Fold this sequence. Notes:
Elements: E1 7-9, H1 11-18, E2 22-23, E3 26-27, E4 35-38, E5 41-46, E6 51-60, E7 66-78, E8 84-86, E9 102-104, E10 108-111, E11 116-124, E12 132-142, E13 157-166, E14 174-181, E15 185-186, E16 190-199, E17 208-214, E18 220-226, E19 237-246, E20 253-263, E21 269-279, H2 282-313, H3 318-324, H4 326-355
Parallel strand pairs: 5-13, 15-21
Antiparallel strand pairs: 1-5, 2-3, 4-6, 6-11, 7-8, 7-10, 7-12, 9-11, 12-13, 14-16, 16-19, 17-18, 17-20, 20-21
Amino acid sequence: xxxxxxxxxxxxxxxxxxxxxxxxGLVFAVESNSIKIQPSIIEEKAEPGKxxxxxxxxxxxxAISQTYTVTVKDxxxxxxxxxxxxxxxxxxxxxxxxxxxxxxQNETFTLAPNESITVPFVVSVPKDATPGGHFGAxxxxxxxxxxxxxxxxxxxxxxxxxxxxxxxxxxxNADIREFxxxxxxxxxxxVKFTVKIENKxxxxxxxRGMIDVVDMFGKKTxxxxxNDSAAAVFPHSSRVFTxxxxxxxxxxxxxxxxxxxxYGLDVKRSIFSEIQFYIAPMSIVTxxxxxxxxxxxxxxxxxxxxxxxxxxxxxxxxKKERTINKADFSSRSTVMFLAFFVFSAVFIxxxxxxxx
Length: 356
């Protein structure tokens, strides 16, 4: 008997929820070379002491008859890449366990090619079940061999993911642990952003949001979607999300990236973080530096010629006065060099202001 609404998701939902799982011989997928499982994921809200009845459909998609075995395992965590880490044995306490709640009929069955079978199962939530998320998976293994305590088995496994949120004191609390770009200074607009989200609560969260890039004048340059697929972060763990900004148009100066995400099932909460980086493409910087150097050189020569002209107007021979009036000539030379360095300093300050 069902005590609450059931939401069944397609194979795409499974990918959105945890990402593509391909590891240690275990694959979550809708279809393999020999077995097709539906649904790929079941997500429910549950009440302590209540039962939840459902079923999964297995279809032999191969060309020969196959014997299959059904097993249940707990998911103890999700790594930062979104791949689940399964409990090593059925008796392991993960804090999120639920495999002992699941009772499956038809634990072993044989299917002819293209034949299907409906496998009923019941999830009995204990009265003392801890509030928050509980996670597991129902596997169908080819070869008819049940995995041992370490999850080893001969054959190929696909399955249905189970995500149950038990009512009670559910805590939703997350934070942005890290927000970085792959570099600080870029020669072109190819910026990769990495955001690490930590879930401090006891329930699954799906943070979604944007990264807004603002230039040095406060104008929004671009908005990038972050975790638009609504991939989940496991309780008491972290997960890394990435996105990139690439543009063929030239950009120059200092930029600020602001990450803003929201999460929460009943009450939406927001988290923010920001970083700064610089873009100085050589296609812009090199011509500008070359032009300014040319201007500085022309200014230097002009000042030097102006000083010589004034010396001649006062009847001073620069070559002779170089030996008899060194102090006077030195002061004029100092003015010339000071003018050059002042111009250089102004140029540097302008360039730094562009990148500040």
